[in-house]
Specification:
It is built from one helix and no strands. By secondary structure, it is mainly alpha-helical. About 0% of the residues are buried.
């Protein structure tokens, strides 16, 4: 009988040790749960703020897109009006360009005729210089204030 009370006492110590180990485990678990719960709350709170900011930004973006769409529509309408005016003026410009080309052809023909006339004039002046210059150079020697005769001009042969 002496062994039984000792066994009860050992069992009581084992139960108390197990209870204290269990209490320690529960306290550590509760502390970990509280830390994780606080961190989860922080994450949810931050996510909520970010979503609210995103919602506000999306509203501003939508408003800006609406304003941009209206501005682009106005600009395109103005461009269409300008292109209509350009299209109307293109026919007149095409007619004017054709008339300009015809006038330039006439100017070219006139310039060719002037070029031929100038060539003939140059040849005539060269011949006159030869035919008149030599006899006059003889008489210029007798003049008191004469200078040497000018050099002879020989036109280029075409």
């Amino acid at each position: 009988m002496n062994n039984q009370p000792v066994d009860n006492h050992v069992e009581t110590k084992n139960i108390k040790r197990e209870q204290s180990n269990l209490k320690l485990t529960v306290w550590v678990g509760m502390a970990a749960f509280l830390i994780l719960a606080a961190y989860g709350f922080y994450l949810v709170f931050t996510l909520t703020q970010n979503v609210a900011h995103l919602d506000k930004s999306v509203g501003e973006i939508a408003q800006n897109m609406t304003e941009m769409t209206h501005a682009v529509t106005r600009n395109l309408d103005g461009m269409n009006t300008s292109f209509d005016a350009v299209a109307r003026n293109m026919d007149a410009m095409q007619g004017n360009t054709a008339q300009l080309a015809q006038n330039l052809t006439e100017v070219t023909r006139t310039m060719q005729m002037m070029n031929q006339s100038m060539l003939s004039l140059r040849q005539d002046v060269g011949q006159m210089n030869q035919s008149v210059g030599r006899p006059l150079s003889f008489f210029s020697q007798f003049m008191p204030q004469s200078s040497p005769p000018p050099p002879y001009y020989y036109p280029a042969r075409p």
